[in-house]
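step=encode ok
step=design start
structure_in=
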């Protein structure tokens, strides 16, 4: 190819020559051709086409601009982690560069910038993504996109960005585009979702793309992805836009583009999602599969919370209406005949929970009239999916009670239309709707039999108007026969339509046809029960089983009315075969007759008196009952055999059997059994459960005889501990996995163990040291936990089984006997669970609501625990049982049970749990009388009980070493947050009830109720320095602090300072709590923790800003703090860097004046400390000196250990008072470094600081010994005067009244109290340890010069020995691994040895005047160290020694 080149080319070079740039090529063309406007326009269009084709934009710009364009490389602009990030290039620079490049290319800058940004978005989206989050950006991608969008926002603001071009470019990379990137473009107003959708050329393609991405987004939300908040916000915004644009009545006329495109896409996407959901449900979606998660998330968008307030109610209703239409009409493949045959399978209980959840969300938005009207319209105008239509009807009558009457009216209208014009479709619709509604039971809709009798059993029915109507009715019923359920055929035969005699043949023909069909199905018309439930799961029950149910129902009606039920009377006449063959045999089952006649006996006697029982049958029944009374002897003999074989199996001798067990020790944590015991007990329990099931299939519990009582007695001997241990394993650790027969059997076993309460020993479930035992029935309360969803449901089942069995077993017994058989805790837990799980149970019961109780439904294989629990709840005897004092669920009981439940494993959602808790507090327990466990309407009493219960629970939950996450019965703390939220709500309500002039929760006499609670509880705690007592007190106080932090800051200092009380009265209680308790437990490095400090100051400013002179109020309050609670001020100094911005913002928001003077003092103190540690500054310490010393001490802690001495050399120039106070804080720091191993100030550094300050004190001869006598100096009776912080030159001021500054002496009790209120008590007690830790730094001259030195040294030594003997020095002993690190410092034994040697050398050298207080010192402590005591007494009694110089040197 090189041979073909033109020799005189413009380049002047061959094939190996230089490549010419784009600019040179363009320049050559400009030289050859003249300017032509048309050609220029074509060139511009070509350039735009070049940009829009899939070219490498960065390479193209590099070619145009040359090497300099690398500065504007797109990958660098959006790479947040690179050194050439866009932060190095301002947006104006980027805009200018784009303008220059656009002018060179001859294209609009808006198109160039749009192409650049679109290319950048594409690069970000094609970067490696998290495979588990295919529609979300990674953190790195999100940062890069944010950088790029900042550039785009600048370009957009300066008209250098084309939205249309950007949208078109964006859709070219549709396959790699991530949904989150599109959402960010929308929320940051780069380009809206509407504009993006309108710019897409293919509406169906963009709809499919959105559908796929929304499915992935829903799946990720349910999978609890890391960026769940972003994903939910995305879903909410997309759905809002789709509903707004797709179902808005009036289009926006201001837009120049046609609005139909967006509306089309929005409706298409919503339809795709719904169709996908409906088809998945039809195919049978698996629980917790990816599709199941997607549907669950998508259905959650059908709520006002997701749609938000930006969408009008009309748009939402149109959307919901369209959704309902689509649900009812999608895939109409079933015929009406299929619906007749299969509709029982579409009841509410059998409908998929996701679909019923969707129905319920539709019911929230649409009224009952709108729902029924919409259903009517769809059925009249479109082909429908009968399964969805009928499942919708079931949900409607269950969830919307107002719709029941509307459905009845609509069905009546359909029937009238059908008979008027013989419309078969209306007839089919009416029958299907009525039958479906009746499947949900009488509480939701009248039974089908009642409706059929009401519609056709009288002359008023629509069928009786003409022969044509009759023919139409029987033609319709005859057509249904091949598809009918036997139950409906039985109803039609037993309750036939009323027909004139002349048309009787129509009825007989139909009955004959129906009976033939029943015969083909092998169902006898005579076997239909009197009270047969058409909504039951099975088709036809066995005659015997149905007869047992009829007997129970008839007895229940007889109990309520005192008369024989009409149904039974009719059956004895019109259905005599069933009555004689099944009903009477079931009623007259032989049993042991009770001593006090029960309802069954009375019912039988009433039937006999009415001649409804043949005499021969009644006589046989009486004889059989008499024979049954003799059977207990036989059962007793069999039980004796079982007991003997059980004894042999367990290896128990007769002597063991005769030994009485005083108390059973049971380990709840880890119950263990020997293999032989395990096998034998399992056999016993299995046998009991099987026998109970067998006996219950024949007779109810009250007619089963004494076998169960006798059987349980075999377990009440030496085998009882093994039985209880196995029950603990089953109920406490394996409960949710037990089957219904096991639950029923163990529930009955619990009742019979309660029946034998008096002969059973107590059970101890605590540690071996516990002495208080539980009766066996109360043990079950402890074994049943209510922590998680599974344990809640299991506890409910067990409570239902035990209580139902008890009421059925002893129907005629007194309430006292029933209570003795049942644990009161079990009854309370049942109340708690029913009220918590079933909202319908929270409504007051009317007289009509009381139901009878049947044991039979519970032992059937398909036990409906929900229905059984509600039946027990409304049972009359149970409601009477709840009136007893021991059985009442009190407010405190409710709080304990509620606190046990962990929100993360709760069966209720967050919203449901909040609704329940608010109902329980404000509607159940607050208005309830205190005698019934309520609060008498007193909100403060409710708060008091809540706080006490919360604190009790917090203490007990860690008892016996159980962890918080343990599933054992002594509970964790996971439910505390929700209950504390309720406390916040009540505290806010209580604040509104207060007098405006009083602070919230306060009254002049007793103060805030919270501090009263704290005070009473602290008085009840064990005092002392023991580890257990200290830890218990610490846990209690930490909980106090947590509660205070969750309540308004006005609880700490009031809501206003304008009342007539003394200015600190509202803070007195908080100050007392800080000084007496928090100072010792919750303080940190001489200060309170940051959270409580900030909370107090927020409250202080809030209250002050409500007064007329905020600055004055703040100054007065903080001035009082100096004397009453100085720890508040030292805490503010420590946390001032984080506290200052908050206080400044809060103050300046309401006041234009500077900060109050006392707050400025804190600023100055921190500034002084900062300047002091600066190399060149020599600041002057502000007053008060003790605050400046505290600030300086906190600042010194941040200095490196090697620089401490250097920095502290400046102390030589500071005031004497400052040095003394600094020494005090340094001593506290030294002790803290030993007490808190992880302290920021290590022991060696702390000792170095103390030594440096002490050296300065000694150099300037400033007295400091009084710091070690603070505890004595704070007591007014003690009159010892030691000059503190006064040099010898200034000591003369004591004798010179003209001097302006008085000396600072220990006798000033105010100063001693101030320092003691800053230091924790433990630190004050350990001052002897600090004193002798500085032994090597004591100056010899000071020891000899100071008269008080010997007294202080001896006092410190004796106290140190006492601390060591009491074991209190163990808290400062270094761990084994730190002994070498601390270079021997901190070892109490070594310290005592050195101190003793020091004293024995010092005593002979001291002048006799120094021994004036020795007698007092040794008064009670001479035995601490006899040798030192002897040396002191000897020196005190000896003559003055003039030859002191011959004694060895002390230092």
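sequence_out=
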């Amino acid at each position: 190819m090189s041979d073909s080149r033109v020799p005189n080319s413009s380049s002047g070079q061959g094939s190996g020559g230089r490549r010419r740039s784009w600019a040179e090529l363009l320049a050559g063309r400009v030289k050859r051709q003249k300017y032509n406007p048309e050609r220029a326009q074509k060139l511009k269009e070509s350039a735009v086409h070049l940009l829009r084709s899939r070219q490498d934009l960065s390479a193209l710009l590099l070619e145009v601009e040359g090497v300099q364009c690398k500065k504007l490389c797109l990958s660098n602009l959006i790479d947040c982690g690179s050194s050439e990030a866009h932060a190095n290039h301002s947006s104006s620079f980027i805009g200018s560069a784009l303008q220059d490049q656009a002018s060179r290319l001859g294209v609009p800058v808006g198109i160039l910038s749009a192409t650049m940004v679109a290319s950048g978005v594409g690069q970000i989206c094609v970067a490696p993504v998290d495979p588990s989050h295919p529609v979300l950006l990674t953190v790195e991608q999100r940062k890069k996109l944010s950088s790029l969008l900042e550039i785009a926002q600048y370009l957009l603001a300066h008209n250098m960005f084309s939205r249309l071009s950007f949208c078109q470019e964006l859709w070219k990379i549709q396959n790699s585009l991530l949904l989150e990137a599109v959402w960010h473009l929308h929320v940051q107003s780069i380009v809206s979702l509407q504009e993006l959708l309108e710019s897409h050329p293919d509406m169906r393609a963009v709809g499919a793309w959105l559908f796929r991405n929304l499915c992935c987004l829903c799946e990720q939300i349910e999978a609890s992805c890391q960026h769940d908040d972003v994903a939910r916000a995305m879903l909410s915004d997309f759905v809002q836009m789709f509903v707004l644009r797709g179902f808005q009545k009036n289009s926006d006329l201001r837009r120049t583009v046609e609005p139909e495109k967006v509306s089309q896409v929005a409706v298409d996407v919503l339809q795709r999602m719904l169709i996908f959901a409906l088809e998945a449900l039809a195919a049978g979606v698996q629980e917790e599969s990816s599709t199941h998660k997607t549907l669950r998330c998508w259905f959650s968008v059908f709520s006002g919370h997701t749609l938000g307030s930006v969408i009008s109610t009309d748009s939402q209703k149109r959307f919901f209406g369209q959704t309902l239409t689509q649900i009812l009409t999608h895939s109409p493949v079933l015929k009406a005949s299929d619906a007749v045959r299969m509709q029982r399978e579409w009841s509410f209980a059998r409908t998929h929970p996701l679909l019923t959840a969707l129905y319920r969300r539709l019911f929230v938005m649409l009224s009952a009239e709108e729902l029924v009207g919409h259903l009517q319209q769809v059925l009249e105008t479109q082909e429908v999916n009968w399964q969805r239509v009928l499942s919708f009807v079931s949900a409607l009558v269950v969830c919307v009670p107002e719709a029941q009457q509307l459905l009845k009216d609509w069905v009546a209208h359909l029937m009238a239309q059908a008979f008027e014009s013989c419309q078969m479709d209306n007839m089919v619709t009416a029958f299907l709707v009525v039958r479906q509604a009746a499947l949900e039971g009488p509480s939701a809709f009248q039974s089908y039999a009642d409706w059929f009798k009401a519609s056709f059993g009288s002359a008023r029915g629509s069928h009786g108007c003409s022969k044509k109507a009759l023919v139409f009715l029987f033609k319709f019923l005859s057509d249904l026969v091949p598809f009918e359920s036997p139950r409906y055929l039985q109803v039609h035969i037993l309750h036939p339509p009323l027909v004139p005699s002349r048309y009787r043949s129509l009825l007989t023909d139909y009955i004959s046809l129906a009976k033939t069909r029943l015969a083909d199905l092998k169902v006898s018309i005579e076997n239909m029960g009197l009270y047969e439930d058409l909504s039951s799961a099975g088709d036809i029950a066995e005659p015997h089983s149905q007869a047992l149910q009829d007997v129970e129902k008839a007895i229940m009606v007889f109990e309520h009315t005192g008369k024989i039920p009409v149904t039974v009377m009719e059956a004895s006449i019109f259905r005599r075969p069933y009555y004689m063959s099944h009903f009477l045999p079931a009623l007259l089952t032989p049993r042991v007759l009770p001593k006090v006649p029960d309802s069954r006996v009375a019912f039988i006697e009433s039937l006999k008196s009415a001649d409804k029982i043949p005499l021969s049958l009644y006589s046989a029944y009486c004889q059989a009952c008499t024979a049954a009374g003799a059977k207990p002897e036989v059962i007793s003999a069999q039980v004796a055999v079982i007991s003997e074989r059980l004894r042999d199996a367990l290896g128990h001798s007769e002597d063991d059997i005769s030994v009485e067990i005083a108390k059973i020790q049971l380990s709840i944590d880890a119950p263990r059994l020997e293999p032989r015991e395990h096998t034998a007990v399992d056999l016993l329990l299995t046998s009991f459960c099987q026998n109970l099931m067998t006996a219950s299939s024949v007779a109810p519990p009250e007619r089963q005889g004494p076998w169960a009582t006798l059987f349980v007695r075999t377990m009440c001997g030496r085998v009882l501990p093994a039985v209880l241990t196995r029950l603990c394993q089953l109920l406490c650790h394996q409960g949710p996995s037990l089957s219904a027969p096991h639950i029923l059997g163990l529930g009955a076993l619990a009742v019979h163990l309660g029946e034998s309460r008096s002969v059973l020993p107590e059970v101890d479930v605590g540690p071996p040291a516990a002495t208080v035992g539980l009766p066996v029935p109360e043990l079950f309360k402890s074994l049943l936990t209510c922590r998680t969803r599974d344990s809640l449901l299991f506890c409910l089942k067990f409570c239902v089984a035990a209580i139902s069995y008890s009421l059925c077993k002893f129907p005629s017994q007194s309430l006292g006997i029933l209570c003795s058989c049942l644990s009161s805790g079990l009854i309370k837990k049942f109340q708690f669970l029913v009220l918590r799980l079933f909202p319908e149970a929270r409504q007051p019961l009317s007289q009509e609501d009381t139901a009878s109780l049947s044991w039979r439904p519970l032992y059937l294989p398909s036990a409906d625990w929900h229905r059984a629990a509600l039946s027990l709840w409304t049972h009359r005897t149970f409601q009477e049982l709840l009136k007893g004092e021991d059985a009442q669920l009190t407010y405190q009981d409710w709080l304990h049970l509620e606190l046990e439940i962990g929100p993360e494993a709760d069966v209720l959602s967050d919203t449901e749990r909040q609704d329940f808790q608010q109902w329980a507090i404000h509607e159940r327990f607050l208005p309830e009388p205190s005698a019934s466990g309520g609060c008498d309407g007193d909100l403060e009493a409710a708060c008091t009980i809540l706080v006490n219960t919360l604190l009790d629970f917090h203490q007990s939950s860690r008892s016996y070493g159980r962890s918080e996450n343990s599933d054992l019965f002594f509970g964790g703390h996971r439910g505390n947050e929700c209950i504390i939220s309720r406390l916040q709500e009540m505290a806010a309500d209580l604040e509104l009830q207060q007098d405006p002039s009083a602070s919230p929760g306060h009254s002049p006499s007793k103060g805030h109720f919270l501090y009263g609670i704290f005070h009473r509880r602290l008085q009840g705690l064990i005092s002392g320095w023991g580890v257990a007592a200290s830890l218990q007190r610490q846990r209690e106080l930490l909980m106090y602090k947590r509660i205070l932090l969750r309540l308004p800051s006005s609880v700490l200092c009031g809501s206003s300072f304008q009342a007539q009380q003394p200015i600190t009265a509202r803070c007195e209680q908080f100050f007392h709590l800080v000084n007496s308790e928090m100072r010792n437990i919750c303080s940190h490095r001489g200060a309170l923790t940051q959270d409580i400090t900030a909370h107090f100051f927020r409250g202080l400013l809030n209250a002050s800003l409500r007064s007329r002179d905020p600055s004055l109020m703040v100054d007065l309050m903080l001035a009082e703090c100096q004397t009453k609670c100085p720890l508040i001020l030292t805490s503010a100094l420590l946390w001032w860097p984080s506290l200052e911005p908050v206080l400044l913002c809060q103050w300046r928001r309401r006041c234009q004046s500077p900060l109050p003077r006392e707050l400025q003092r804190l600023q100055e103190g921190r500034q002084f400390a900062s300047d002091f540690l600066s190399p060149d500054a020599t600041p002057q310490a502000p007053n008060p000196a003790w605050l400046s010393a505290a600030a300086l001490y906190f600042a010194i802690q941040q200095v490196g250990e090697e620089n401490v001495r250097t920095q502290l050399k400046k102390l030589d120039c500071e005031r004497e008072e400052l040095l003394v106070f600094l020494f005090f804080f340094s001593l506290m720091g030294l002790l803290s470094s030993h007490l808190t191993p992880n302290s920021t100030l290590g022991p060696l550094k702390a000792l170095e600081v103390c030594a440096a300050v002490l050296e300065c004190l000694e150099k300037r001869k400033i007295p400091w010994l009084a710091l070690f006598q603070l505890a004595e100096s704070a007591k007014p009776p003690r009159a010892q005067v030691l000059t503190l912080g006064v040099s010898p030159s200034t000591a003369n001021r004591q004798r010179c009244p003209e001097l302006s500054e008085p000396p600072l002496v220990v006798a000033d009790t105010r100063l001693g109290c101030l320092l003691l209120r800053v230091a924790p008590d433990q630190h004050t007690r350990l001052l002897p340890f600090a004193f002798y830790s500085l032994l090597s730094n004591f100056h010899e001259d000071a020891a000899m010069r100071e008269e008080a030195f010997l007294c202080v040294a001896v006092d410190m030594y004796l106290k140190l020995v006492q601390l060591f003997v009491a074991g209190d020095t163990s808290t400062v002993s270094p761990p084994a691994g730190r002994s070498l690190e601390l270079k021997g410092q901190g070892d109490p034994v070594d310290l005592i040895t050195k101190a003793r040697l020091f004293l024995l050398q010092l005593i002979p050298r001291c002048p006799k005047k120094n021994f004036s207080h020795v007698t007092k010192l040794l008064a009670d402590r001479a035995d601490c160290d006899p040798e030192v005591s002897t040396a002191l007494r000897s020196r005190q009694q000896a003559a003055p020694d003039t030859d002191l110089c011959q004694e060895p040197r002390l230092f």
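step=design ok
step=annotate ok -> The chain has a mean pLDDT of 78.
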